[in-house]
Amino acid sequence: MPEQTAVQQPAPAPVPTPKPQPPRRSIHQIVTTSKIWKSIFRHDFKDTPRTRVMRIFGNVFLHLQPVRIPRSAIRVSYSWGLGGITFFLFLILTVTGVLLMFYYRPSVTGAYQDMKDLEFVVTLGLLLRNMHRWSAHAMVVCTILHMIRVFLTGAYKAPREFNWGVGIVLLVLTLLLSFTGYLLPWDQLALWAVTVGTNMASATPLLGAEGPFSIVTPMNDARFVTLGGTIVGQNTLLRFYVLHCIALPLVLFILVSVHFWRVRKDGFSTPDPKSPAYQDKVDTWPHLIAREFLAALLVLILLTGASIFRNAPLEEAANPNRTPNPSKAPWYFAGLQELLVYFDPWIAGVVLPGVIVVGLLAIPFIDPNPKGIGYYSIKDRPLANSIFLFGNFLWFLLIAIGMYCRGPNWEWYWPWEPWSSHRITMARTWNIPNPIGLALIGGYFALGMTLPALLKREFFKQLGLIKYSIVMGLLLMMGGVVGKILLRLLLNVKYIVSFPQFNLNI
Asked: Please, are residues 208 and 221 in contact by the beta-carbon 8 Å criterion?
Protein backbone atom coordinates (compact mmCIF):
# COMPACT_ATOMS: atom_id res chain seq x y z
CA MET A 1 0.00 0.00 0.00
CA PRO A 2 1.31 3.37 -0.86
CA GLU A 3 2.42 5.43 2.04
CA GLN A 4 -0.05 8.02 3.18
CA THR A 5 1.33 11.54 3.20
CA ALA A 6 1.01 13.22 6.64
CA VAL A 7 -1.41 16.04 6.55
CA GLN A 8 0.23 19.20 7.85
CA GLN A 9 -1.90 21.04 10.28
CA PRO A 10 -1.97 24.80 9.75
CA ALA A 11 0.02 26.73 12.33
CA PRO A 12 -2.19 28.46 14.86
CA ALA A 13 -2.67 32.14 14.20
CA PRO A 14 -0.59 34.29 16.56
CA VAL A 15 -2.60 35.83 19.37
CA PRO A 16 -2.41 39.60 18.97
CA THR A 17 -0.80 41.34 21.90
CA PRO A 18 -3.24 43.89 23.30
CA LYS A 19 -2.04 47.48 22.92
CA PRO A 20 -1.45 49.23 26.21
CA GLN A 21 -4.31 51.56 26.95
CA PRO A 22 -3.35 55.14 27.81
CA PRO A 23 -4.14 55.98 31.40
CA ARG A 24 -7.38 57.75 31.92
CA ARG A 25 -6.94 61.47 32.37
CA SER A 26 -8.96 63.55 34.73
CA ILE A 27 -10.88 66.59 33.55
CA HIS A 28 -8.27 68.74 35.27
CA GLN A 29 -5.48 67.11 33.24
CA ILE A 30 -7.42 67.42 29.99
CA VAL A 31 -8.02 71.12 30.56
CA THR A 32 -4.50 72.01 31.72
CA THR A 33 -2.80 70.17 28.84
CA SER A 34 -5.03 71.63 26.14
CA LYS A 35 -3.66 74.07 23.60
CA ILE A 36 -6.10 76.76 24.69
CA TRP A 37 -4.96 76.56 28.32
CA LYS A 38 -1.27 76.66 27.38
CA SER A 39 -1.84 79.66 25.14
CA ILE A 40 -3.14 81.59 28.16
CA PHE A 41 -0.96 80.31 31.02
CA ARG A 42 2.76 80.03 30.43
CA HIS A 43 3.51 77.98 33.53
CA ASP A 44 2.07 75.15 35.56
CA PHE A 45 0.61 75.56 39.00
CA LYS A 46 2.95 73.39 40.99
CA ASP A 47 4.22 74.97 44.17
CA THR A 48 7.87 75.33 43.23
CA PRO A 49 10.23 78.31 43.41
CA ARG A 50 10.10 78.63 39.63
CA THR A 51 6.30 78.71 39.39
CA ARG A 52 6.10 81.22 42.24
CA VAL A 53 8.32 83.54 40.21
CA MET A 54 6.41 82.87 36.99
CA ARG A 55 3.07 83.69 38.62
CA ILE A 56 4.34 87.21 39.24
CA PHE A 57 6.16 87.68 35.93
CA GLY A 58 3.40 86.14 33.84
CA ASN A 59 0.53 88.21 35.22
CA VAL A 60 -0.22 91.61 33.72
CA PHE A 61 -1.30 92.95 37.12
CA LEU A 62 0.90 91.08 39.57
CA HIS A 63 4.12 91.82 37.68
CA LEU A 64 4.03 95.31 39.21
CA GLN A 65 4.92 93.56 42.47
CA PRO A 66 8.50 92.48 43.23
CA VAL A 67 9.18 88.75 43.00
CA ARG A 68 10.59 88.51 46.52
CA ILE A 69 10.24 90.92 49.40
CA PRO A 70 11.75 91.23 52.89
CA ARG A 71 9.78 89.30 55.47
CA SER A 72 9.76 92.32 57.78
CA ALA A 73 8.05 94.47 55.13
CA ILE A 74 4.84 92.39 55.01
CA ARG A 75 4.07 92.45 58.71
CA VAL A 76 0.48 93.57 59.23
CA SER A 77 1.57 95.76 62.15
CA TYR A 78 3.99 97.60 59.85
CA SER A 79 1.99 98.60 56.77
CA TRP A 80 -1.55 97.62 57.89
CA GLY A 81 -2.18 96.84 54.23
CA LEU A 82 -3.38 100.41 53.68
CA GLY A 83 -1.89 100.78 50.19
CA GLY A 84 -3.48 97.58 48.91
CA ILE A 85 -6.79 98.34 50.61
CA THR A 86 -6.89 101.79 49.02
CA PHE A 87 -6.32 100.28 45.57
CA PHE A 88 -8.99 97.64 46.18
CA LEU A 89 -11.46 100.38 47.13
CA PHE A 90 -10.62 102.09 43.83
CA LEU A 91 -11.44 98.85 42.00
CA ILE A 92 -14.78 98.61 43.84
CA LEU A 93 -15.51 102.22 42.90
CA THR A 94 -14.67 101.47 39.27
CA VAL A 95 -16.93 98.40 39.06
CA THR A 96 -19.87 99.94 40.91
CA GLY A 97 -19.43 103.22 39.04
CA VAL A 98 -19.61 101.52 35.64
CA LEU A 99 -22.76 99.66 36.70
CA LEU A 100 -24.33 102.87 37.99
CA MET A 101 -23.65 104.57 34.66
CA PHE A 102 -26.18 102.21 33.02
CA TYR A 103 -28.95 103.76 35.13
CA TYR A 104 -27.87 107.40 35.35
CA ARG A 105 -28.37 110.44 33.12
CA PRO A 106 -26.27 113.57 33.76
CA SER A 107 -29.29 115.83 33.43
CA VAL A 108 -30.80 118.25 35.93
CA THR A 109 -34.24 116.96 34.92
CA GLY A 110 -33.42 113.27 35.19
CA ALA A 111 -30.53 112.75 37.63
CA TYR A 112 -32.60 112.88 40.81
CA GLN A 113 -35.28 110.60 39.34
CA ASP A 114 -32.57 108.11 38.43
CA MET A 115 -31.47 108.11 42.09
CA LYS A 116 -35.04 107.28 43.09
CA ASP A 117 -35.22 104.55 40.45
CA LEU A 118 -32.06 103.00 41.85
CA GLU A 119 -33.76 102.90 45.23
CA PHE A 120 -37.18 101.58 44.24
CA VAL A 121 -37.02 100.13 40.70
CA VAL A 122 -33.54 98.72 39.89
CA THR A 123 -32.80 95.36 41.48
CA LEU A 124 -30.04 95.85 44.08
CA GLY A 125 -29.71 99.43 42.84
CA LEU A 126 -29.71 100.90 46.34
CA LEU A 127 -27.03 98.44 47.47
CA LEU A 128 -24.95 99.40 44.44
CA ARG A 129 -25.21 103.11 45.20
CA ASN A 130 -24.49 102.56 48.90
CA MET A 131 -21.34 100.58 48.14
CA HIS A 132 -20.15 103.28 45.76
CA ARG A 133 -20.75 106.04 48.31
CA TRP A 134 -19.17 104.31 51.31
CA SER A 135 -16.24 103.07 49.22
CA ALA A 136 -15.51 106.66 48.20
CA HIS A 137 -15.49 107.83 51.83
CA ALA A 138 -13.38 104.84 52.87
CA MET A 139 -10.88 105.50 50.07
CA VAL A 140 -10.38 109.10 51.28
CA VAL A 141 -9.78 107.88 54.84
CA CYS A 142 -7.44 105.05 53.82
CA THR A 143 -5.41 107.32 51.53
CA ILE A 144 -4.83 109.77 54.39
CA LEU A 145 -3.97 106.97 56.82
CA HIS A 146 -1.60 105.46 54.26
CA MET A 147 0.18 108.83 53.95
CA ILE A 148 0.49 109.05 57.74
CA ARG A 149 1.88 105.51 57.94
CA VAL A 150 4.45 106.18 55.23
CA PHE A 151 5.61 109.30 57.04
CA LEU A 152 5.84 107.68 60.47
CA THR A 153 7.94 104.84 59.08
CA GLY A 154 10.21 107.15 57.07
CA ALA A 155 9.28 105.35 53.85
CA TYR A 156 9.44 108.62 51.91
CA LYS A 157 13.21 108.97 52.23
CA ALA A 158 15.79 108.18 49.55
CA PRO A 159 15.31 106.63 47.05
CA ARG A 160 11.54 107.03 47.42
CA GLU A 161 11.20 110.83 47.25
CA PHE A 162 9.54 110.78 43.82
CA ASN A 163 7.05 108.10 44.82
CA TRP A 164 6.07 110.13 47.89
CA GLY A 165 5.24 112.99 45.54
CA VAL A 166 3.17 110.69 43.35
CA GLY A 167 1.30 109.58 46.47
CA ILE A 168 0.49 113.18 47.44
CA VAL A 169 -0.87 113.84 43.94
CA LEU A 170 -2.98 110.68 44.27
CA LEU A 171 -4.37 112.01 47.56
CA VAL A 172 -5.42 115.24 45.83
CA LEU A 173 -6.99 113.29 42.96
CA THR A 174 -8.89 111.11 45.44
CA LEU A 175 -10.37 114.20 47.07
CA LEU A 176 -11.31 115.65 43.68
CA LEU A 177 -12.92 112.37 42.62
CA SER A 178 -15.10 112.36 45.71
CA PHE A 179 -15.94 116.04 45.29
CA THR A 180 -16.96 115.74 41.62
CA GLY A 181 -19.11 112.71 42.42
CA TYR A 182 -20.84 114.57 45.23
CA LEU A 183 -22.93 116.61 42.77
CA LEU A 184 -24.24 113.73 40.66
CA PRO A 185 -27.32 112.78 42.78
CA TRP A 186 -28.59 116.35 42.22
CA ASP A 187 -30.30 116.70 45.59
CA GLN A 188 -30.19 119.61 48.01
CA LEU A 189 -27.16 118.20 49.85
CA ALA A 190 -25.19 117.84 46.61
CA LEU A 191 -26.18 121.17 45.07
CA TRP A 192 -25.31 123.37 48.02
CA ALA A 193 -22.25 121.42 49.09
CA VAL A 194 -20.76 121.92 45.62
CA THR A 195 -21.91 125.56 45.64
CA VAL A 196 -19.98 126.16 48.86
CA GLY A 197 -16.90 124.37 47.49
CA THR A 198 -16.82 126.12 44.13
CA ASN A 199 -17.43 129.55 45.63
CA MET A 200 -13.87 129.37 46.96
CA ALA A 201 -12.62 129.38 43.36
CA SER A 202 -13.91 132.93 42.94
CA ALA A 203 -11.47 134.01 45.68
CA THR A 204 -8.40 132.79 43.77
CA PRO A 205 -5.77 135.56 43.64
CA LEU A 206 -5.64 137.18 40.19
CA LEU A 207 -7.88 134.53 38.56
CA GLY A 208 -10.93 134.90 40.81
CA ALA A 209 -13.41 137.75 40.48
CA GLU A 210 -13.39 138.24 44.27
CA GLY A 211 -9.73 137.42 44.86
CA PRO A 212 -6.91 139.82 45.66
CA PHE A 213 -5.65 141.86 42.70
CA SER A 214 -8.32 140.34 40.44
CA ILE A 215 -7.82 140.76 36.69
CA VAL A 216 -11.00 138.93 35.62
CA THR A 217 -14.78 139.27 35.89
CA PRO A 218 -17.44 136.80 37.16
CA MET A 219 -18.01 135.83 33.51
CA ASN A 220 -14.49 134.46 32.93
CA ASP A 221 -12.92 133.74 36.33
CA ALA A 222 -11.86 130.42 37.87
CA ARG A 223 -15.34 129.75 39.26
CA PHE A 224 -16.95 130.32 35.86
CA VAL A 225 -14.55 127.83 34.26
CA THR A 226 -15.26 125.26 36.98
CA LEU A 227 -19.04 125.58 36.79
CA GLY A 228 -19.38 126.20 33.08
CA GLY A 229 -21.45 129.24 33.98
CA THR A 230 -22.28 131.54 36.87
CA ILE A 231 -24.43 129.04 38.81
CA VAL A 232 -24.42 125.32 39.52
CA GLY A 233 -26.58 124.02 36.67
CA GLN A 234 -26.68 121.67 33.69
CA ASN A 235 -23.21 122.65 32.45
CA THR A 236 -21.75 122.03 35.90
CA LEU A 237 -23.41 118.63 36.21
CA LEU A 238 -22.10 117.55 32.81
CA ARG A 239 -18.56 118.77 33.56
CA PHE A 240 -18.49 117.05 36.94
CA TYR A 241 -19.85 113.86 35.35
CA VAL A 242 -17.09 113.78 32.73
CA LEU A 243 -14.43 114.60 35.31
CA HIS A 244 -15.74 112.00 37.75
CA CYS A 245 -16.27 109.16 35.27
CA ILE A 246 -13.49 109.65 32.69
CA ALA A 247 -10.81 112.28 33.20
CA LEU A 248 -9.88 111.90 36.87
CA PRO A 249 -10.11 108.05 36.99
CA LEU A 250 -7.87 107.81 33.92
CA VAL A 251 -5.21 110.05 35.43
CA LEU A 252 -5.49 108.29 38.79
CA PHE A 253 -5.13 104.83 37.21
CA ILE A 254 -1.98 105.90 35.35
CA LEU A 255 -0.43 107.37 38.50
CA VAL A 256 -1.39 104.31 40.57
CA SER A 257 0.46 102.13 38.04
CA VAL A 258 3.50 104.41 38.30
CA HIS A 259 3.21 104.33 42.08
CA PHE A 260 3.21 100.51 42.20
CA TRP A 261 6.04 100.30 39.69
CA ARG A 262 8.22 102.63 41.72
CA VAL A 263 7.51 100.61 44.86
CA ARG A 264 8.91 97.61 43.01
CA LYS A 265 11.93 99.45 41.62
CA ASP A 266 12.75 101.31 44.84
CA GLY A 267 12.10 98.31 47.08
CA PHE A 268 10.05 97.99 50.22
CA SER A 269 11.28 100.12 53.10
CA THR A 270 13.05 98.23 55.88
CA PRO A 271 15.08 99.43 58.88
CA ASP A 272 18.46 98.50 57.43
CA PRO A 273 18.97 97.02 53.93
CA LYS A 274 22.18 95.33 55.12
CA SER A 275 20.60 93.73 58.18
CA PRO A 276 19.73 90.01 58.35
CA ALA A 277 16.06 90.98 58.49
CA TYR A 278 16.37 92.49 55.03
CA GLN A 279 18.21 89.49 53.66
CA ASP A 280 15.45 87.19 54.93
CA LYS A 281 13.12 87.39 51.95
CA VAL A 282 9.97 85.50 51.06
CA ASP A 283 8.17 84.95 47.76
CA THR A 284 5.52 87.51 46.91
CA TRP A 285 3.35 84.59 45.84
CA PRO A 286 1.80 83.37 48.08
CA HIS A 287 2.90 85.35 51.16
CA LEU A 288 2.05 88.91 50.12
CA ILE A 289 -0.73 87.99 47.67
CA ALA A 290 -2.50 85.90 50.33
CA ARG A 291 -2.42 88.78 52.80
CA GLU A 292 -3.74 91.21 50.20
CA PHE A 293 -6.52 88.79 49.26
CA LEU A 294 -7.61 88.37 52.88
CA ALA A 295 -7.54 92.13 53.44
CA ALA A 296 -9.64 92.68 50.30
CA LEU A 297 -12.11 90.02 51.40
CA LEU A 298 -12.47 91.61 54.84
CA VAL A 299 -13.00 95.07 53.32
CA LEU A 300 -15.62 93.68 50.93
CA ILE A 301 -17.51 92.06 53.80
CA LEU A 302 -17.45 95.25 55.88
CA LEU A 303 -18.54 97.40 52.93
CA THR A 304 -21.37 95.04 52.06
CA GLY A 305 -22.57 95.06 55.66
CA ALA A 306 -22.40 98.84 55.86
CA SER A 307 -24.25 99.16 52.54
CA ILE A 308 -27.02 96.84 53.72
CA PHE A 309 -27.65 98.52 57.06
CA ARG A 310 -26.96 102.17 56.22
CA ASN A 311 -28.15 104.00 53.12
CA ALA A 312 -26.26 106.78 51.37
CA PRO A 313 -27.88 110.15 52.11
CA LEU A 314 -30.38 111.51 49.60
CA GLU A 315 -32.36 114.64 50.39
CA GLU A 316 -35.11 116.26 48.36
CA ALA A 317 -34.46 117.29 44.76
CA ALA A 318 -32.07 120.19 44.22
CA ASN A 319 -33.72 123.59 44.43
CA PRO A 320 -31.51 126.61 43.62
CA ASN A 321 -34.15 128.92 45.12
CA ARG A 322 -34.14 127.30 48.56
CA THR A 323 -30.89 127.55 50.48
CA PRO A 324 -30.50 125.21 53.47
CA ASN A 325 -29.18 126.72 56.69
CA PRO A 326 -26.47 125.67 57.34
CA SER A 327 -25.11 124.74 53.94
CA LYS A 328 -22.07 122.50 54.41
CA ALA A 329 -19.36 121.20 52.11
CA PRO A 330 -18.50 117.46 52.01
CA TRP A 331 -16.93 116.32 55.26
CA TYR A 332 -13.41 116.12 53.81
CA PHE A 333 -13.68 119.83 52.87
CA ALA A 334 -15.46 120.85 56.08
CA GLY A 335 -12.08 121.89 57.52
CA LEU A 336 -11.64 124.42 54.72
CA GLN A 337 -15.16 125.70 55.29
CA GLU A 338 -14.42 126.11 59.01
CA LEU A 339 -11.31 128.11 58.13
CA LEU A 340 -13.60 130.62 56.41
CA VAL A 341 -14.63 131.74 59.90
CA TYR A 342 -11.08 132.86 60.61
CA PHE A 343 -9.73 133.79 57.16
CA ASP A 344 -10.92 135.31 53.92
CA PRO A 345 -11.80 132.79 51.17
CA TRP A 346 -8.60 133.45 49.20
CA ILE A 347 -6.56 132.28 52.20
CA ALA A 348 -8.83 129.50 53.47
CA GLY A 349 -9.74 128.04 50.10
CA VAL A 350 -6.68 128.68 47.94
CA VAL A 351 -3.50 129.69 49.79
CA LEU A 352 -3.63 127.32 52.76
CA PRO A 353 -4.55 124.19 50.72
CA GLY A 354 -1.79 125.10 48.26
CA VAL A 355 0.74 125.53 51.05
CA ILE A 356 -0.30 122.19 52.57
CA VAL A 357 0.20 120.33 49.28
CA VAL A 358 3.53 122.04 48.54
CA GLY A 359 4.69 121.39 52.10
CA LEU A 360 3.85 117.69 51.82
CA LEU A 361 5.67 117.43 48.49
CA ALA A 362 8.75 119.12 49.99
CA ILE A 363 9.06 116.84 53.03
CA PRO A 364 11.52 114.30 51.55
CA PHE A 365 13.82 117.07 50.34
CA ILE A 366 13.95 119.13 53.55
CA ASP A 367 14.20 116.30 56.08
CA PRO A 368 17.90 115.87 56.93
CA ASN A 369 17.43 113.08 59.48
CA PRO A 370 18.47 109.72 58.00
CA LYS A 371 16.96 107.76 60.88
CA GLY A 372 13.61 106.07 60.99
CA ILE A 373 13.41 104.27 57.66
CA GLY A 374 11.33 101.13 57.87
CA TYR A 375 9.99 101.32 61.42
CA TYR A 376 7.91 103.52 63.67
CA SER A 377 10.55 105.84 65.04
CA ILE A 378 8.88 108.24 67.46
CA LYS A 379 11.98 108.36 69.66
CA ASP A 380 14.45 108.87 66.79
CA ARG A 381 12.40 111.63 65.12
CA PRO A 382 10.39 113.31 67.89
CA LEU A 383 10.24 116.77 66.31
CA ALA A 384 9.28 115.68 62.79
CA ASN A 385 6.67 113.20 64.00
CA SER A 386 5.19 115.64 66.50
CA ILE A 387 4.80 118.41 63.92
CA PHE A 388 3.32 116.09 61.31
CA LEU A 389 0.86 114.50 63.72
CA PHE A 390 -0.12 117.90 65.11
CA GLY A 391 -0.88 119.13 61.59
CA ASN A 392 -3.09 116.12 60.93
CA PHE A 393 -4.79 116.49 64.30
CA LEU A 394 -5.51 120.16 63.60
CA TRP A 395 -7.00 119.30 60.21
CA PHE A 396 -9.32 116.63 61.60
CA LEU A 397 -10.23 118.89 64.52
CA LEU A 398 -11.38 121.56 62.07
CA ILE A 399 -13.38 118.91 60.18
CA ALA A 400 -15.04 117.76 63.42
CA ILE A 401 -15.91 121.35 64.38
CA GLY A 402 -17.35 122.08 60.95
CA MET A 403 -19.40 118.89 60.86
CA TYR A 404 -20.69 118.66 64.42
CA CYS A 405 -20.35 122.09 66.07
CA ARG A 406 -21.75 124.44 63.42
CA GLY A 407 -25.44 125.11 63.03
CA PRO A 408 -27.66 127.78 61.43
CA ASN A 409 -25.78 130.89 60.36
CA TRP A 410 -22.62 128.91 61.07
CA GLU A 411 -22.98 129.62 64.78
CA TRP A 412 -21.28 127.39 67.33
CA TYR A 413 -23.51 124.64 68.72
CA TRP A 414 -22.31 121.81 70.90
CA PRO A 415 -23.35 118.44 69.47
CA TRP A 416 -26.02 118.00 72.17
CA GLU A 417 -27.54 121.48 71.70
CA PRO A 418 -30.72 121.92 69.58
CA TRP A 419 -30.43 124.23 66.59
CA SER A 420 -32.32 127.49 66.43
CA SER A 421 -32.37 129.94 63.54
CA HIS A 422 -33.30 132.77 65.94
CA ARG A 423 -30.25 132.39 68.13
CA ILE A 424 -28.40 135.59 69.04
CA THR A 425 -25.26 135.92 66.94
CA MET A 426 -21.80 135.94 68.44
CA ALA A 427 -20.14 139.13 69.66
CA ARG A 428 -19.14 141.79 67.17
CA THR A 429 -15.70 141.36 65.61
CA TRP A 430 -13.11 144.09 65.21
CA ASN A 431 -9.95 144.67 63.13
CA ILE A 432 -6.49 145.42 64.41
CA PRO A 433 -5.22 148.72 62.96
CA ASN A 434 -3.05 148.12 59.91
CA PRO A 435 0.19 149.64 61.33
CA ILE A 436 -0.05 147.46 64.43
CA GLY A 437 -1.06 144.43 62.37
CA LEU A 438 1.81 144.82 59.93
CA ALA A 439 4.21 145.20 62.86
CA LEU A 440 2.83 142.05 64.50
CA ILE A 441 3.14 139.98 61.31
CA GLY A 442 6.62 141.34 60.51
CA GLY A 443 7.85 140.77 64.04
CA TYR A 444 6.39 137.26 64.17
CA PHE A 445 8.17 136.14 60.99
CA ALA A 446 11.40 138.01 61.81
CA LEU A 447 11.72 136.43 65.24
CA GLY A 448 10.57 133.04 63.97
CA MET A 449 13.21 133.01 61.27
CA THR A 450 16.15 134.28 63.31
CA LEU A 451 15.74 132.89 66.85
CA PRO A 452 15.94 129.16 65.96
CA ALA A 453 19.05 129.82 63.84
CA LEU A 454 20.70 131.66 66.74
CA LEU A 455 19.69 129.18 69.43
CA LYS A 456 20.24 126.01 67.37
CA ARG A 457 23.19 126.71 65.10
CA GLU A 458 23.69 123.02 64.38
CA PHE A 459 20.14 122.84 63.06
CA PHE A 460 20.77 125.79 60.75
CA LYS A 461 24.08 124.37 59.50
CA GLN A 462 22.55 120.96 58.93
CA LEU A 463 19.77 122.34 56.75
CA GLY A 464 21.46 125.21 54.99
CA LEU A 465 19.91 128.56 54.23
CA ILE A 466 17.37 127.47 51.59
CA LYS A 467 16.05 124.39 53.39
CA TYR A 468 16.02 126.26 56.69
CA SER A 469 13.95 129.07 55.18
CA ILE A 470 11.44 126.60 53.72
CA VAL A 471 11.12 124.60 56.94
CA MET A 472 10.71 127.62 59.17
CA GLY A 473 8.35 129.30 56.70
CA LEU A 474 6.04 126.26 56.73
CA LEU A 475 6.19 125.98 60.53
CA LEU A 476 5.49 129.67 61.01
CA MET A 477 2.50 129.51 58.68
CA MET A 478 1.11 126.57 60.66
CA GLY A 479 1.66 128.49 63.88
CA GLY A 480 0.06 131.56 62.30
CA VAL A 481 -3.09 129.60 61.47
CA VAL A 482 -3.39 128.46 65.09
CA GLY A 483 -2.71 131.99 66.34
CA LYS A 484 -5.36 133.55 64.10
CA ILE A 485 -7.93 130.96 65.21
CA LEU A 486 -7.20 131.75 68.86
CA LEU A 487 -7.44 135.52 68.22
CA ARG A 488 -10.88 135.04 66.67
CA LEU A 489 -12.22 132.68 69.33
CA LEU A 490 -10.80 134.50 72.36
CA LEU A 491 -10.71 138.18 71.32
CA ASN A 492 -13.14 138.29 68.35
CA VAL A 493 -10.41 139.66 66.06
CA LYS A 494 -11.51 139.45 62.43
CA TYR A 495 -8.54 140.86 60.54
CA ILE A 496 -4.96 141.56 61.57
CA VAL A 497 -4.37 143.50 58.34
CA SER A 498 -7.13 144.74 56.03
CA PHE A 499 -6.91 146.33 52.57
CA PRO A 500 -10.47 146.06 51.22
CA GLN A 501 -9.67 148.05 48.10
CA PHE A 502 -7.48 145.11 46.96
CA ASN A 503 -9.61 142.32 48.55
CA LEU A 504 -6.49 141.63 50.62
CA ASN A 505 -7.39 140.79 54.22
CA ILE A 506 -5.46 138.64 56.68
From this structure: yes
- Closest residue by Cα to residue 232 from 192, 265, 270: 192
Please give the mean pLDDT across all residues of the chain.
87
pTM value? Answer: 0.89
pLDDT above 70 as % of the chain = 92
Q: How far, in Å, CA of 419 to CA of 356, rounded? A: 33
- Angstrom distance (rounded) from CA 64 to CA 170: 18
pLDDT digits (tens, 9 = 90+) for 299-349: 999 999 999 999 999 999 998 888 888 888 889 989 988 998 898 888 888
Polymer length of the chain: 506
pLDDT above 90 covers a percentage of the chain that reads 44
Contact 177, 242 (CB under 8 A): no
The DSSP line for 229-256 is SSSSSHHHHHHHHHIIIIIHHHHHHHHH
Dihedral class, residue 323 (left if φ above 0, else alpha if ψ from -120 to 50, else beta) = beta
* 418 secondary structure, DSSP code: P
From the list 433, 211, 489, the residue with the least C-alpha distance to 344 is 211
**Domains of the chain as residue ranges with CATH:** 63-323 (1.20.810.10)
In three-state secondary structure terms, 413 is coil
Q: What is the DSSP letter of 350?
A: I
**Nearest CA-CA partner of 83 in 126, 1, 142, 168:** 142
